[in-house]
Amino acid sequence: MQTAHSLDVLRNSIGKLRSGSNTIGLVPTMGALHEGHLTLIRRAREACDHVVASIFVNPTQFGPNEDLDAYPRQMEEDAAMLQSEGCALLWAPGVEVMYPGGPENFVTSISVRGVSEGLCGASRPGHFDGVATVVNKLFNQVQPDMAFFGEKDFQQLAVIRAMARDLDLTLPHVLSIIGVPTVREPDGLAMSSRNRYLSPTDRDAAATLPRAMKEAIARIEDGQDPSPTLAALEDELLGAGFSSVDYAVLADSASLAPLNRLSGNAARLLVAARIGGTRLIDNMAVAG
Ligand code: PAF
Predict the structure, then answer these.
(1) Which of 107, 205, 220, 258 is the most exposed place for a label (fewest CB within 10 A)?
(2) Which numbered atom of ligand 1 lies nearest the CA of 131?
């Protein structure tokens, strides 16, 4: 596996990988890789001739009181994992390569209205602008045929799909955005780089999240009113040791507009809740 830290080396390496019209799959990450990321790499390997993974902890998607400095960084370990999964190229730009002059002097931002405004967008102002902008840069830099994102970050995936559609990135035969189902621990907790922040007690209690979500989904699919069902889900999380619930929402899968009841279209239950200072998010499909 080659590693590129500069745009010149990246372009040169991509040019070689592309020779003979080989296809390229991009897996954008912020590192601290786990089985969820490796599943994206495997999926990309099945679909494309070569896989490029990026590792960049993007400062513009972290709020002032968020965990940018504390975000786990383990470049050597990550590179070894990518190599053993058959990744062809690691794109690992520094902040000065991605934002020459510093993020504070970067004057362009992509803002995706609507889909980025509720849910995590409500409590993390500017987060999805940072995500959309850096993902757009990654697409321009690597020019992949396909890009792979986990459904664990369901709203992020919706924002990226909307941006790619509106900016004509997904014209036929240019770029396909592939969503890959969430990978879970044996007790159901969605894998996340942030799970490592959890104390052993909080880690045990965190498994209440997927369990309570499944129970709520079963009730909603059974015809119960979503509103009291979601209120009961919040109470269950608070009773299990979560300190707060940012949201527990039934939403349309495509627009992410909140739903008071099932409408026959694909729906999703999305939850964000805090435990021991760590914010966990999860989402699951709800049969219409
Ligand atoms: O999901 C992530 O790891 C990040 O938000 C992404 C897509 C790599 C953009 O920084």
Answers:
(1) 107
(2) 9
